[in-house]
Design brief:
CATH class: Alpha Beta
Strand content: 25-35%
Structural class: alpha/beta
CATH architecture: 3-Layer(aba) Sandwich
Number of strands: 14
Order of helices and strands: EEEHEEHEEEHEHEEEEEH
CATH topology: Rossmann fold
Number of helices: 5
Strand order of the largest sheet: 5-4-1-6-9-10-12-13
Bound molecules: cytidine-5'-monophosphate
Oligomer: single chain
Number of domains: 1
Amino acid sequence: SPRQLLAGKRIVVTAGGTQEPLDPVRYLTNRSSGKMGYAIAEAAQVAGADVTLISANAALPTPSNVKLVRVQTAAELLTSVQQNFATADILIMAAAVADYRPKTVATQKIKKTANNETMTLQLVRNPDILKTVAASKEPNQVIVGFAAETNDLLANATKKIAAKKLDLIVANDVSNHQIGFNSENNQVTFLFANGEKTKTALESKRAVANELITILANKFSFNE
Ligand code: C5P
């Protein structure tokens, strides 16, 4: 396991899935458990990094010696990432961010009505957090994104590297139930901005996290 590979580095990890409220009792969300992001936060802390874990609604134990920030919505996640990114050496965006949120949040519970058999929700686009922070990226900062895809995994992931100005993307096939959402294991392809790629074995999320830590320590140079 990586020992002190990231000593003195400041790492911000996001994990979990955002919840977008609709009314006081309902929200829109996704199937992210937060397990991959939490495993990365733990592995980075063991490797000597100063870790801030921004958790969107994950129901998991807080890793030891990690600074935990809890958020609910994509808007709150954006604010927290912006606050923490400026002084970070590495940002790892493992959170599943809702692409859209309800246009209005009702202050009272929305009621069904006798005459309405269908209902339409209006959604508005959430900001892209990676694109927003990439705009202020310093040359010595490293940004890692995730791509959870059900089809055309590598083609879609490659597009995201360019669109979001990433150094590295962790691509995982969520159509395979042995890996991905809420499972204990994962199998990912690490795709670099220069087109290089490497695929892991099917292994625990902590093992994937350790491989990511080793890659970060080896491939990227950080300011001393
Ligand atoms: O575009 P897509 O959501 O598939 O990209 C996934 C990557 O982008 C993840 O790293 C995710 O955390 C990040 N993301 C983001 N802001 C959004 C949507 C996704 O930073 N609004």
